[in-house]
Design brief:
GMP Synthetase, Chain A, domain 3, alpha+beta, two-stranded antiparallel sheet, elongated, 2 strands
Amino acid sequence: MRIRNGIDLDLRGFLGISEDVRPGYQNIRVSCRIKSDAPRDKIEEVWEYARRTSPVTDIIHSGVPVSITLEE
């Protein structure tokens, strides 16, 4: 399996240079190549299951609330 990632991040927001730019990612891309003797439909079934049940994908798509506190 080979996974290629692509992330768009404007560092001006992250570094505090511009308040007009978000400090987070503007785009995240993932591409995966799987070598297997399994039929294509089975590979797609496993791929869809993994995509659907991924906690990371869920967090990104659902906009999970984040609480950050500074402890004493």
